[in-house]
Automatic annotation (TrEMBL):
NCBIfam families linked to this entry: ant_ant_sig
Name of the protein: Anti-sigma factor antagonist
All copies of domain STAS, residue ranges: 13-122
Gene Ontology MF term list: anti-sigma factor antagonist activity
Organism: Streptomyces albiflavescens
Name of a matching Pfam family: STAS
Length: 134
């Protein structure tokens, strides 16, 4: 059983991670908006600085994502790509996935229904080599 470690804890958001099959699963619990989105980038930078390169951004506990939050995901993706890493996103919320569709970013990411599904195969190479035109 993996050990979950908190990175960010505030009134509005908790961000924690664990490592599963070579993937660092970054679980976000709370709304991602103009007030909380900087925490996403902060957490990704911290993990990258610690040597984590292959991330699963678990949005299964995120009830709301606005355009500023989407911008934080894109900014984080660029940082992961600079480290020749990979990023997968999990969410079973049609409303959340619609934000990626409306923005035209849905095809730029690999989406999974759960972290278990996203981590079944170990990462291989750079999953973002051709992002966002993969």
């Amino acid at each position: 059983m993996a050990m979950r470690t908190n990175i960010i804890r505030s009134e509005r958001m908790v961000i924690s991670y664990d490592v599963v099959n070579g993937w660092t699963v970054l679980e976000v619990d709370g709304e991602i908006d103009v007030h909380t989105s900087p925490r996403i980038t902060e957490a990704v930078i911290k993990l990258l600085d610690e040597g984590h390169r292959h991330l699963v951004l678990d949005l299964c506990f995120v009830p709301f994502l606005d355009s500023v939050g989407l911008g934080a995901v894109v900014a984080s993706t660029k940082r992961i790509r600079e480290r020749e890493g990979s990023l997968r996103i999990t969410s079973s919320s049609a409303r959340l996935l619609k934000v990626f569709e409306i923005s035209g970013l849905h095809d730029a990411y690999e989406f999974y229904d759960s972290p278990e599904e996203a981590t079944l195969q170990a990462p291989s190479g750079s999953g973002l080599a051709h992002w966002p035109h993969g």
